[in-house]
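Tokens for chain A. Residues wanted.
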């Protein structure tokens, strides 16, 4: 239910709603919802100073009640840095 709610909220924000992917993972200390969007939309999901991301986390935490939920926004455009010299 939480993943579906988050997906619905994020799809309403982005320009490429078909590219929104929510991955629900169980961790030792609760659940993590990993949000992946089109690279052009990552700024919209995070927002200025992270305000949109904070608001999305607040809504999901309110829906979760006492359950520990972590929401991560993954920048799929980033590649691991190679050894810098």
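Reply:
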């Amino acid at each position: 239910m939480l993943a579906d709610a988050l997906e619905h909220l994020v799809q309403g924000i982005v320009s490429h709603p078909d590219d929104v992917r929510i991955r629900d993972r169980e961790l030792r200390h609760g659940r993590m919802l990993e949000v992946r969007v089109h690279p052009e939309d990552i700024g919209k999901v995070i927002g200025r100073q992270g305000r949109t991301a904070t608001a999305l986390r607040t809504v999901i935490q309110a829906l979760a009640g006492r359950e520990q939920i972590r929401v991560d926004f993954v920048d799929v455009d980033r590649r691991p840095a190679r050894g810098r010299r």
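The chain has a mean pLDDT of 88. The first helix runs from residue 2 to 11.
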